[in-house]
Amino acid sequence: MKVVEVSIVTPNGPVYTSEAEMVSVKAKSGELGILPGHIAMVAPLAVGAVRIKKGSYTEYVAISGGFLEVRPDKVTILAQAAEVSANIDVPRAEEAKKRAEQRLQQRQDHVDFKRAELALKRAVNRIDVFKHTR
Ligand code: ATP
Prior knowledge:
Elements: E1 4-10, E2 13-20, E3 22-27, E4 30-34, E5 41-54, E6 57-71, E7 74-79, E8 82-84, H1 90-106, H2 110-130
Helix pairs in contact: 1-2
Adenosine-5'-triphosphate binds near residues 64, 87 and 93.
Function: Produces ATP from ADP in the presence of a proton gradient across the membrane.
InterPro entries: ATP_F1_dsu/esu_C_sf (IPR036794), ATP_synth_F1_dsu/esu (IPR001469), ATP_synth_F1_dsu/esu_N (IPR020546), ATP_synth_F1_esu_C (IPR020547), ATPsynth_dsu/esu_N (IPR036771)
Subcellular location: Cell membrane
């Protein structure tokens, strides 16, 4: 069976490495599905889930934006933060979500608003991705 090597790397080091039959990511331009043999490309990623299909199982990894690099035999994701679903601390994400929602209600300056919006996206993404833990 054809496979592609997947690695997810953050400033704290590698978070995930495996072979997969398919990798799906949330690019800024929309969902992308990558199969082995895909042409080389680079794309910016949104806050979202990376889905890694291995046989009958799909592993979910939360990423907080970054870059995708595809070569025919390898998919590399560079992310500021990434967590495999089983490693997500849900109470922490719930707290982060609450804090971000409070900040958004206070309607401070534009910079704080943008920052709170992004924090909210990261927290909601983590909570969603955790739901896919085996
Ligand atoms: P928080 O306010 O809870 O720190 P955050 O979105 O600001 O959330 P990040 O700056 O994205 O956090 O991440 C900082 C580090 O903490 C990263 O290494 C990230 O993987 C980890 N991390 C953040 N939230 C969680 C979580 N809910 N579960 C597991 N790891 C997390």
